[in-house]
Design brief:
The chain is an alpha/beta fold. It is built from 19 helices and 13 strands. Helix 11 links the parallel strand 6 and strand 7. The structure holds pyridoxal-5'-phosphate (PLP). Pyridoxal-5'-phosphate binds next to helix 7 and strand 6.
């Protein structure tokens, strides 16, 4: 074993030019820690005998640099989504429009009128910012934005139905994903659950019978990520509202995804729109900001002024409030709907509405650039607990590689990771969910992986 005293000191290594560069990039304390760790590591290996010579200073600094890079690389990284799942929850749901990103950047950059009234110079309310555009867009009496739709539902129930009865159809007592179960959230809010109907069927009389007892709220929850098919029945929202209002009970409609656009226009099943829920006179309507709305994570609550006022006053409202960057982004996304430019400006609607020929042309371009692969017809999915089982016809790039799963892993390990899928032993990539400006980066990753 070489003499361990011959190892350089931390100070000695710190005096090198490489170390100075590391200090400039990572700061002195972290660089010191990395050099110490690198020295301890070589000391341990020399003692064990797994190293026999003292490495050059450069080698030890290289090791320190690798540690520094490892310690400072974020785990939240951008990826290219070539899975064809448009609202991929694990990949961050909706990518944001240019105007949305810009307004989030501007508001995040400096100070703002978050809770400040420019005219009076006095304190204002953060709740007004998205409210005006939501009211304009929907015609609802009042609106508010919270952290996400799960908190919108929890807050609504806590404010309107704590210790009181909430009637809900058994067929809607679903788990939405990530362990978010409608019945658990209802219990968490302190509301008393009154389940009506059976798993597949609920009749208007079931509601009417339940409403004979004193009730705080009738609730509807979108099934989101699954479909009941076959022998099923649920009364129309309008009918449920009619019998509830006759009993003096308000109706809350958790739309889940919350779309302003008619999904049928794009060959998908009909999804109750926000406007339709309002037209059916639901009293409180909740939906997500980052599902079919196509904006940042948020929960949106709209409805009757008196009920929204109660919700705003509840102590939980403070705990689930939206931050300024979110409010800026939600407002900018909503503006696209107000200006009738959602299909052009909101990425997920662009993906949903893209012409099939356009997708085919992109897939063919990929094949041409790569000099291999085949373009085949396939299906894209909406995902994100929206429109369960619904797909859109698409064209895919299919690659034949020796080990498809190993290939997927290699794609994920690249500088610009690409997420794809396999089917019948082939690697499949769907242009629909790849942002057009990512084509170049996607091809570089594919070329590097195919090498
Ligand atoms: C997705 C969903 C939620 C939760 O919304 P988040 O914005 O993810 O918190 C609640 N209810 C329904 C019906 C949903 O589909």
């Amino acid at each position: 074993m070489p003499d361990l005293r011959a190892l350089p000191s931390v100070e000695k290594l710190l005096q090198t030019r490489t170390a100075a560069e590391l200090v400039a990039a990572y700061g002195r304390p972290l660089t010191l820690q990395a050099i110490r760790t690198a020295l301890n590591d070589i000391r341990a290996r020399l003692s064990r005998g797994s190293a026999v010579t003292i490495p050059k200073h450069g080698r030890m600094l290289k090791k320190a640099q690798a540690l520094l890079e490892d310690w400072t690389t974020p785990t939240l990284l951008p990826v290219i989504n070539a899975t064809g799942v448009i609202l991929h929850t694990n990949l961050g749901r909706a990518p944001l429009s240019t105007a949305t990103r810009q307004s989030m950047e501007v508001i995040g950059h400096g100070y703002s009128t978050l809770e400040f009234n420019l005219e009076s110079g006095k304190r204002g309310s953060r709740l007004i910012h998205a409210e005006a555009v939501l009211k304009q867009l929907t015609g609802a009496e009042a609106a508010m934005v919270v952290n996400n739709n799960a908190s919108a539902v929890l807050l609504t129930l806590s404010a309107l139905a704590r210790r009181r009865k909430v009637v809900i159809a058994r067929s809607q007592l679903v788990e939405i994903g990530g362990g978010f179960r409608i019945p658990d959230v209802m219990k968490q809010s302190g509301a008393k659950l009154v389940e009506v109907g059976t798993t597949n069927k609920v009749h208007l009389e079931d509601y009417e019978n339940a409403l004979e007892e004193p009730t705080a709220l009738v609730m509807l929850a979108h099934r989101s990520n699954f479909k009941i098919i076959g022998f099923t029945e649920e009364p129309a929202l309008k009918e449920i509202v009619r019998v509830s209002h006759a009993a003096g009970v308000p109706v809350a409609d958790d739309l889940g995804s919350g779309t302003f656009l008619d999904t049928e226009r794009f060959g998908l099943v009909h999804e109750r729109t926000v406007q339709e829920s309002l037209a059916a006179e639901a009293d409180v309507i909740c939906f997500s900001g980052d599902k079919l709305l196509g904006g940042p994570q948020a929960g949106i609550i709209i409805g009757r002024a008196g009920l929204i006022a109660k919700i705003k006053k509840h102590p939980l409202a403070r705990a689930v409030r939206a931050d300024k960057v979110c409010l800026a982004g939600v407002t900018a996304t909503l503006m696209h709907y107000l200006k009738d430019e959602a299909l052009r400006e909101i990425p997920i609607w662009r993906m949903i509405s893209t012409a099939l020929e356009h997708i085919e042309a992109r897939a063919k371009n990929w094949v041409k650039s790569l000099g291999q692969g085949e373009v085949i017809p396939g299906k894209s999915a909406i995902g994100g607990g929206s429109l369960p089982g619904e797909t859109l016809p698409t064209y895919l790039l299919a690659l034949d590689v020796p080990s498809p799963d190993r290939f997927l892993a290699k794609l994920r390990a690249q500088q610009q990771p690409v997420i794809a899928r396999t089917e019948n032993d082939r690697v499949l990539l769907d242009p629909r969910t790849v942002l057009p400006e990512q084509d170049g980066a996607l091809l570089v990753t594919l070329q590097n992986t195919l090498k």
